[in-house]
Amino acid sequence: MTKRQISLAWEHVQAQQRRARRERITDVNAAYAGGNSMTTLLKDLK
């Protein structure tokens, strides 16, 4: 993976976490969802 792919993946996770906070989901759920999407995204990019 390139550094660019990693930074794009990270931006995607942060955007999801911000959206989760806006919807007043608990931080634990937001972090969990972010971690899951990051893992999925990294698998997809390989």
From TrEMBL:
- Report the protein name in the record: Uncharacterized protein
Q: Which species expresses this protein natively?
A: Stenotrophomonas maltophilia
